[in-house]
Design brief:
Elements lengths: L1 H33 L1 H8 L7 H4 L4 H25 L2 H27 L1 H22 L4 H14 L14 H6 L16 H7 L4 H11 L1 H28 L3
Helix pairs in contact: 1-4, 1-11, 2-7, 4-5, 5-11
Length: about 240
């Protein structure tokens, strides 16, 4: 009985974490969906952009779906453990098993198709740079999105300051965005931007991911371990219901 009580507590804790994580993702998804206008305004200025890129605007709805799903899973697990319901415990086990298998499959697909992803990113690079050249400085929403991105990531353009060379902003002001000049106290002209050589936003994002690769890997392994433990505990409780 003591062991069974401990397992019920562990099951409740596991699913409490899943429920809270789902609620957090759901909240972020709602926020992204509400603010999707900014992203759409940015994407519509990328000429001949791959159709897949436009799907980024729907990521908020994806997060809402994932968050709602995780919240439901957490609810099933918690109720199944507390009420000792075989139906809920079995449903929970099945759902978590499917999630685990999908995660493994996604990891394999990402590894196998890595060269294809690189080609798509290279193609996007040229089109994003062209969109900056055509719209930065004359389109308010586009300029605002880029300014926010550069301030957040401490970067300059998609590749570097050269993305702005023929842009309307440089043509009318003879200066570059302030984020392209980190050490200069004077105006951010071409000479200052070239001297500072601030990294582009794409590379800054890659660097951010690489710097946190160990943390991301640890989180992924932790989630996998949590899912396996939850499945094991749910099956033990399922076997012991009524005993």
């Amino acid at each position: 009985m003591c062991c069974k009580g401990f397992l019920k507590i562990m099951m409740f804790v596991f699913n409490g974490v899943i429920f809270l994580a789902g609620a957090a993702i759901l909240a972020v998804g709602i926020w992204v969906a509400v603010d999707r206008v900014s992203l759409l305004g940015f994407l519509e200025h990328i000429e001949d952009a791959p159709p897949e890129l436009a799907q980024l605007a729907n990521i908020g709805y994806l997060l809402i779906g994932v968050g709602a799903f995780l919240t439901l899973v957490g609810f099933l697990g918690c109720c199944g453990a507390v009420k000792e319901s075989k139906c809920m415990l079995l449903s929970f086990f099945t759902v978590v098993l499917i999630i685990f298998l999908v995660e493994v499959a996604a990891g394999v697909v990402l590894f196998v198709f890595e060269p294809l992803v690189k080609n798509v990113l290279d193609e996007i690079e040229e089109k994003v740079a062209r969109s900056i050249e055509d719209n930065y400085g004359i389109d308010e929403s586009f300029t605002s999105v880029w300014n926010s991105t550069m301030n957040e990531l401490k970067c300059c353009g998609y590749n570097n300051y050269t993305d702005f060379m023929d842009s309307p902003f440089v043509s009318t002001t003879s200066s570059y965005p302030v984020t392209c000049c980190t050490s200069s106290s004077g105006p951010c002209n071409e000479f200052a931007a070239k001297a500072d050589s601030v990294v582009g936003c794409f590379q800054a994002l890659v660097n951010l991911i690489e710097d946190n690769a160990v943390l991301l890997a640890g989180v992924a392994l932790g989630i996998a371990a949590l899912e396996i433990a939850a499945m094991v505990v749910s099956m033990i409780l399922y076997k012991n219901v009524g005993k």
